[in-house]
């Protein structure tokens, strides 16, 4: 894994479109995210075929938020999503966060399984938040408890 560089942004915007369609971040959005450093932190994971996944955080005092986490279909089921999430948790702790938040589509069963197994708990449901009336689940991980475990 490595930090996202400005040279990655066009490829990330293309991958976003492939992975998320109408909900994808634009190239302009990616530039804005990268400009948010050091509060915003983004990583890419690479394999022999290029970018295989990416993830990002927003650090806001005692709370960090997962801004995005994605893996390409060619690498799914190999633990890359878990490794990206573990890196986000570690970076959140290093930034002094006591809680890590994220939002996930209620119909994204693979992501929900990952987050459940990592100890995230339901904080709030945003009814009909996503296109098509899909709920958004706001999940939280208590980093202070995890650190003591």
From TrEMBL:
Domain N-acetyltransferase stretches: 1-144
Reaction(s) the record says it catalyses: N-terminal L-alanyl-[ribosomal protein bS18] + acetyl-CoA = N-terminal N(alpha)-acetyl-L-alanyl-[ribosomal protein bS18] + CoA + H(+)
Record flagged with keyword Cytoplasm: yes
InterPro entries to which the protein is assigned, alphabetical: AcTrfase_RimI/Ard1 (IPR006464), Acyl_CoA_acyltransferase (IPR016181), Bact_Acetyltransf (IPR050832), GNAT_dom (IPR000182)
Gene Ontology terms: cellular component: cytoplasm
Short name of any one Pfam family annotated for the protein: Acetyltransf_1
Entry annotated with the keyword Amino-acid biosynthesis: no
Gene3D superfamilies named among the record's database cross-references: 3.40.630.30
Domain of life of the native organism: Bacteria
Similarity section: Belongs to the acetyltransferase family. RimI subfamily.
PANTHER family named among the record's database cross-references: AMINOALKYLPHOSPHONATE N-ACETYLTRANSFERASE-RELATED-RELATED
Protein name: [Ribosomal protein bS18]-alanine N-acetyltransferase
Organism the protein comes from: Janibacter indicus
């Amino acid at each position: 894994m490595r930090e996202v560089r400005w040279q990655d942004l066009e490829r990330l915007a293309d991958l976003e479109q492939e992975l998320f369609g109408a909900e994808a971040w634009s190239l302009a959005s990616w530039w804005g995210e990268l400009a948010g450093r050091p509060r915003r932190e983004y990583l890419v994971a690479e394999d022999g075929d290029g970018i295989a996944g990416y993830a990002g955080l927003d650090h806001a005092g005692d709370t960090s938020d997962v801004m995005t986490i994605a893996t390409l279909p060619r690498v799914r089921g190999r633990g890359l999503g878990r490794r990206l999430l573990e890196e986000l948790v570690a970076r959140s702790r290093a930034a002094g966060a006591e809680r890590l938040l994220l939002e996930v589509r209620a119909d994204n069963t693979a992501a929900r399984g990952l987050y459940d197994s990592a100890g995230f708990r339901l904080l709030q449901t945003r009814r009909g938040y996503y296109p098509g009336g899909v709920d958004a689940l706001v999940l939280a991980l208590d980093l202070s408890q995890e650190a003591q475990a």
